[in-house]
Write a structure and sequence with these properties.
alpha+beta; Immunoglobulin-like
Length: 129
Amino acid sequence: MKKRLLFFCAFLTLAASLAFTQVSPQQRQDERATEGQSGINDTVDVVTPPSVDQVTNHSAVLRWGTNKTAATRVNYGTDPNNLFQHGYQQGGTTNHEVMLRNLRPGTTYYFAIENKHGQGRLTGTFTTQ
C-alpha cells in the first residue's frame, strides 16, 4: 500500500511539473529578464483596463497598460476555470498588446492577465464573430 501511495505521489509530481513546462525556455528567460528590470518586489498595477479589439472568427487583440515595465502574458480559454491557452509578447513594456489565436467562431472566451508570479490579476470575457 505504501509503495502505491509513493508511486502515486511521484506520478502527480511529474504530471504537475510537465503541465508547467508549456512555456518555451526563451519565454521564461525573457520573463526573468523583465522581472529584473522592474525589481522583483515592485508592485505593478494595471492603469489602463484591458480592452479586446480586432475580434475576428479566429483571433482577437487584447491590450492593457501598467504603471511599470512588466512581462506581457495572458491565459485564455472557453472555460473560466481552465484557461489553457496562452498569449505572450517578448520583453517587458507598460503598453501591453497580445494577439489571441486559434479561436473558434461565435464562442465566448475568458481571459486572465497574469502578474509576474503567475497569478491572475484581471479577468474578462469576449465573444468571437
